Amino acid sequence: MQNLRVVSPSDRTDEVLRVLDETPGVAHVVVLRGAAVRPEGDVVDAVVVRECANQVLDGLRSLRLTHDGAITMQPVETVLSDAARSAEKKAPGDPDDAIVWDELIGRTREESSLTLTFVAFLTIALLLAAIGVVTDSPVTIVGAMVVGPEFGPLAALSVGLVRRQRSLIRRSLLALLVGFPTAMVITALGAFGAEALGWIRPEAMDDLQQVDFIYQVGPFSLVVALLAGAAGMLALVSAKSAALVGVFISVTTVPAAGFAVVAATVGSWRIAALSAGQLGINLLGIVVAATFVLSLHRRSARAQADR
Asked: Are 13 and 31 in contact (CB under 8 A)?
């Protein structure tokens, strides 16, 4: 369930209560007249079933409260109340299948920002992947997969496409199109430094046995990317963090980028091209599958609302 708090101008509080009263799945409505100081007005608290959160937020947004007041919503782990249980029964659908779009957009917008932290994590992940390639270490490759932050902008891109939010699409594309090249350039500099020190031999690419799967592009490359994208979006909308970690270690986006860099620095252009192709297939597959999952969720929610 969700805890809703609304700061409303006093002349619109009755309309706020009307929205809450007309929406199934709302319980424990509390009104504090004149309690808000900045902005001035009344405070309305309520418990809202997750399945009805979008309906409530759309109704409140139509009252222009985002301009003259405020709307906040956050998850509530435990609610001990007969009224809350009754509200859950009235609400259509299942809470685990419900997507609170404003919550999802907020989470993906934050995770898709092009920040120094994002670039730092991506660079560290690519450096780990490069070390895993040079040492033929699948364990290090898995570590690079977990560290990589690239699923955030990929998920945001899917959300932006489904919701047709150009700002979110631009934000995620900027993170990917700037973050990956920056991290790859830094990794290339590190690879050149390692070659100068004699840590990397040009013939090292011919001796790989444990990590050569990274650049072996085939039909299963796309299948894995599609499955990972679908599972990742399901994990994101249902807040299943353990499942999301599993997604991170199932796709070879970061390892493929690191492999491409190392192969290019030692002159193995065929392997570099194959690795770049693996990277592109994984990125495309994740976005396509995640967008498809969100679209299905949206259609399902509309079908339940029309019943």
From this structure: yes
Strand partners, 48: 2, 26
| Backbone φ and ψ of 2, nearest 5° | -120, 140
Beta pairing partners, 46: 4
Show the tokens assigned to 67: 């301009």
Q: Residues, the chain, total?
A: 307
**Tokens 């009344």 -> residue:** 42
Give the tens place of pLDDT for each residue, 93-115.
666 667 788 888 888 888 888 99
- The answer to whether the Cα torsion of 166, 112, 282, 230 is positive or negative is negative
Q: Model-level pTM greater than 0.70?
A: yes
Distance, CA of 154 to CA of 171 (rounded, Å): 11
Distance CA 205, CA 137 (A): 13
Residue the block writes with tokens 């290090």:
140
DSSP notation for 233-299: HHHHHTT-HHHHHHHHTT--HHHHHHHHHHHHHTT-HHHHHHHHHHHHHHHHHHHHHHHHHHHHHHH
Residue found by looking up tokens 């290019």 in the block: 264
Q: What would the DSSP string read from start to end of 51-96? A: GGHHHHHHHHHTTTHHHHSEEEEEE-S----HHHHHHHHHS-S-GG
Q: What is the mean pLDDT of residues 35-55?
A: 91
Whole-angstrom Cα distance, residue 250 to residue 266?
Answer: 27
Q: How far apart are CA 278 and CA 246, in angstroms?
A: 19
For the chain, give every domain's residue range: 2-98, 103-306
Token representation of residue 262: 């190392």
CATH code given to domain 2-98:
3.30.70.120
